[in-house]
């Protein structure tokens, strides 16, 4: 797919950050680690990745705003456009040597996510989309799975850890859904959960207590792949509600009933 100039800038930044992260991942035992909270680590690699991405994006588009997980928000001269970045989604996986983590970059225009890139350097899988142009993984077009029955479907979620909010609600979600479906996975990188729904690997996913950088890129990728994406409560915007629920349109209504009690 031939993408726009902005998409190409995003892909270049994601791949450059990915190369830096892979080098540190190979020497994970030597990483310097500072602790933000129970199970929530910030590494030297994480902060270096965000700097790489920020430098690349703002060099190419110096007037755009920037929202990053580690460095926070920087207002741009252009108030209508903002980059939203998670430089390392799946930090705990990364620190434990589990090759399931990603770089996530989104472009927001007038409150709407118009382009997204999720890059998994360990597997060299690049998921990307632009509004109106479909969703892709590397050179292949991707679509949500056509399964319509919850009983046949595989889902993903995140389970809160430490003092993170939402654990009782998530446990209730699991108690409702698991007896009715083919399985639920918890792999520890929400951006990849969403990308996997877009690619048909999962049939749906949900998560509570999320941040914009966790989901921004995935929103446009999933929508362009044919998913319905909302907050857990009907007709809410995940970027504002801080939770997310998505599935293919064949089963979104019945899947959502497990959470909208």
Task: Please provide a written account of the structure.
By secondary structure, this protein is an alpha+beta fold. It folds into two domains: about 5-140, Fructose-1,6-Bisphosphatase, Chain A, domain 1 (2-Layer Sandwich), CATH 3.30.540.10; about 150-255, 3-Layer(aba) Sandwich (D-Maltodextrin-Binding Protein, domain 2), CATH 3.40.190.80. About 35% of the residues lie in helices and about 30% in strands. It is built from eight helices and 15 strands. The strands form three sheets. It has an eight-stranded mixed sheet, with helices on both faces. The chain has a five-stranded mixed sheet with strand order 12-11-13-15-14, with helices on both faces. Helix 1 (about 5-25) packs antiparallel against helix 2 (about 45-60) and helix 5 (about 190-200) packs parallel to helix 6 (about 210-225). The longest helix has 21 residues, at about 5-25. It is globular. The protein starts with a helix and ends in a 5-residue tail after the last helix. About 45% of the residues are buried. The mean pLDDT is about 90.
């Amino acid at each position: 797919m031939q993408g726009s100039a902005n998409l190409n800038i995003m892909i270049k930044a994601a791949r450059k950050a990915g190369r830096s992260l892979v080098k540190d991942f190979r020497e994970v035992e030597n990483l310097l680690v500072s602790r933000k909270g129970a199970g929530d680590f910030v590494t030297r690699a994480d902060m270096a990745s965000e700097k790489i991405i920020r430098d690349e994006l703002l060099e190419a588009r110096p007037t755009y705003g920037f929202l990053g997980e580690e460095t926070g928000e920087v207002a741009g001269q252009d108030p209508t456009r903002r980059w939203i970045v998670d430089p390392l989604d799946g930090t705990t996986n990364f620190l434990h040597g589990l090759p399931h983590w990603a770089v996530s970059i989104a472009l927001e225009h007038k409150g709407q996510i118009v382009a997204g890139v999720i890059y998994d350097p360990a597997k060299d899988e690049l998921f990307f989309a632009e509004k109106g142009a479909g969703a892709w993984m590397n050179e292949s077009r991707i679509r949500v799975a056509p399964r319509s029955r919850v009983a046949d479907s595989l889902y993903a979620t995140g389970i809160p850890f430490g003092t993170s909010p939402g654990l009782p609600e998530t446990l209730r979600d699991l108690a409702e859904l698991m007896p009715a479906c083919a399985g639920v996975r918890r792999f520890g990188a929400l951006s990849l959960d969403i990308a996997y729904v877009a690619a048909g690997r999962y049939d749906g996913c949900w998560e509570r207590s999320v941040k914009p950088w966790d989901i921004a890129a995935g929103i446009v990728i999933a929508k362009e792949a044919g998913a319905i994406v909302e907050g857990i409560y009907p007709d809410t915007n995940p970027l504002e509600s801080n939770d997310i629920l998505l599935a293919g349109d064949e089963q979104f209504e019945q899947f959502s009933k497990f959470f909208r009690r």
